[in-house]
Amino acid sequence: MAEASASWRLALRLARRELRGGLAGFRIFLVCLMLGVAAIAAVGSVASAVRGGIAADARALLGGDVDVELNQRPASAAQIAFFAAAGELSATAGMRAMARPAAGGARVLVELKAVDGRYPLYGAVTLSPEMKLAAALARRDGAWGAVAEAALIDRLGLRLGERIRVGTIDYELRAILAREPDRSAGLFSLGPRLMVGYDSLEATGLVQPGSQIHHHYRVRLAPGAGAAGWIADLNAAFPDAGWRIRGPDDAAPGIKRFVDRAGLFLALVGLSTLLVGGVGVGNAVRTYLEGKTATIATLKRLGAPGGLVFRTYLALVMGLALGGTALGLVVGGLAPAAMAGLLGDRFGVALRVALYPGPLLSAAVFGLLTALAFSLVPLTRARDASAAALFRGALAPVRWRPRAADAAALALTAAALAGLAIGTATDRRLALWFVAAAATALVVLRVAAWAASAAARRLNGGTRGPRLRLGLANLYRPGAPTGSVVPSLGLGLTVLVAVGLVHGNLVRQIEETMPAAAPSFYFIDIQPQQTAAFDALVAAQPGAAELYRVPMLRGRIAALAGVPVERIAPPPELAWVLRGDRGVTWSATPPPGTRLVAGDWWPAEYRGPPLISLDAEVAAGFGLTLGDSVSVNVLGREVTGTIANLREVDWATLAINFVMVFSPGLLDDAPQTHIATVRVAPEAEADVQRAVTDRFANVSAIRVKEALEAVGRMIGAVSTAVGATAAVTLLAGVLVLAGAVAADHRQRVYDAVVLKVLGATRADIAGAFLIEYGLIGLVAAAVAAALGSAVGHYFVTRVLHGDWVFLPGVVAVAALLGAALALALGFAGTWRALGRRAAPLLRNE
């Protein structure tokens, strides 16, 4: 023990002396580590800042200490009395509706929110001009007031003081809604906000049996009362209410899910940056040790054991790794402050700007493990090389096989990296897939580099021309950069290709595939007594076709195969099925385009116990089969049906689809509305929308094109962030390439001088070097194109469940970029080598 301690003290003293020579050769080492650590730390810190902001403002975002949500029906008098007895109560109601100027004009779909006089219980509503919300919404001079977001006022061409019609009444616009404390709870919206008084909603004519209205009851509990205990008492008092209850811990679930998912993708791409940088770390260590050949040989000749050499340079490398990691942590730790304004406006949440130890510690461990993993091989080679071989300057080509302990240490370090990546991920299955893909990509790229070197060796025997022969020889000579540049540059290009293909497929689906198959409009909240007139009106409109209409209720899944949903851990990609209410319909015949994959549809005249047609993918995800039961709470009543068949549902068509379709009978007489889709010629869309909303004031028209544009904007924001992180990965690959060129500079100079003495022209030498780096870039780009396409295909088809189309333009751009980068950096290194004069160098030899 004492001997080992003394050996480490000596190693640390020698390492400090080595550092006195400066950081030459380790600059790229430091930058590569810094980039990777900064990317991981920044993503984790920003995500934590968003979650911290949600936690700090949880009650304002939630609207109370507890939020109770009921769909399609208000709470009963007994339930409201229970709410009010707990403390201060505020009621709101939200729905989608059509708004237009009272004098006539364009119609706009709005997110209508009716609030009572006690809203908001927490936080504050900001209006322009400044006034009290209650005064802005009050009934005055025979007119109810309303406040609206500026986007709505601009789209309708209105001014404050003018009237806006919603349903059957006209509201007076009295202020611009600048801030709404609980707006961020709904991350995705199809229209601008219009806020009115709760007592005015009934007069609009929009409140009909079965209308898609979300009723929220926010309670500000009495001092000292705990939300968890009160929620338990509430559920015990009304066990079959079928409501959704949220406390401060679940204040903005949509934002949390979005941040967690986007953060996971960004973190995985950041880890790719670190892996690419790891190749640069290995190169830097190898090159540095090659430059220390004489020092290491002298130490060994004087009796220093290989273990001391190993410890000395391991201490040096890890000390520098600490420096690079620290720089990355500084950059990543400042990310919340840099992104606070942008993301705060996007989410409606004030980011909690602070230093978050968890993400920083995770990024630091990632950085240090990566430095250790990629340094072990060159360090153990230096340890095992004999002094005689070192004095001959043959450190690089020494034949070396790792000891069992070395292989175990390397495997343990790699396993620790993989375990950390999986253990810290919000979706461990996706992280496991990433780790497997990254390991496969590194192996494939390393094999591709070896194959390129072997092919160059074989081809070089039959080639003519000094430029080509020399260029090919440079691919397999001792110390050639092929083995390091192809994996690093290739991995960066792989990430870029995959991100580009995924984004391109999503954009194509939203802008081309979906609009081609999707209807033009969804019409919602059609009352049963309006269906015949609605059908006739739409059929009479020029340019309207393919009308499809079904009844609909909202229900919350309560149990699957007899197991309550509270005890079910859903697969991440299917968690939405159990989250919130689902649309429920019933039909005697299969919906158009139905493809059954198991079981049979019930007879058209069936009126027996409830049967269910279930989405086959949902059934597979939850392990459900024919004959299993599904219980759904519909309007406070639990309905249990038996799975009679499974059907394939193509959600990408945007046609009317439901996870569950019931057999007729039990739900027919429940309060319901109808939903319809219709395809309309583009030039007739405005006329059809106007005709329907003028005739049926309670019916809302959702233009599919506008909904897709909203989705596209969200996807575009995520793709921009992921693409920027992928560009950092490519930058790390470029740095590795630059490091290889810099490390090889002395050999290049020597080669160029010798060739010039032997009669080669500058053009010959430059051409040979450019052929070398051009081939390296092409090999890296070709393998990256294949790997990136495979990754993109898997992600689009298996994770996003979309249709895949190969986009050659994206791959071609990435391939050309890789070849161009390799050529540019190779040319830069070659140009410097060509400028050296022969005489001084030969005299030194």
- Alpha carbon gap, first and last residue: 47 Å
Low-confidence stretches: none
Number of H/I helices: 26
Class inferred from helices and paired strands: alpha+beta
> What is the spatial order of strands in the main beta sheet?
2-3-9-6-8-7
Rough outline: elongated
Number of domains: 4
Radius of gyration: 33 Å
Estimated helix fraction: 40-55%
Strand content: 15-25%
Question: Could you tell me the mean pLDDT?
Answer: 83
Using DSSP, what is the number of strands? 22
Major sheet size, sense and barrel closure: 6 strands, mixed, barrel
Describe this structure in words.
- There is one protein chain.
- With 845 residues, the chain is of the alpha+beta class.
- It folds into four domains: 228 residues, no CATH class; 190 residues, no CATH class; 219 residues, no CATH class; 170 residues, no CATH class.
- The strands form two sheets. A six-stranded mixed beta barrel has the order 2-3-9-6-8-7.
- A hairpin with a 2-residue loop joins β13 and β14.
- α2 packs antiparallel against α22, α12 runs antiparallel to α14 and α15 crosses α17.
- The longest helix is centred in the last third of the chain and has 40 residues.
Name some characteristics of this structure:
845 residues, alpha+beta, 6-stranded mixed β-barrel, 26 helices, 55% helix, elongated
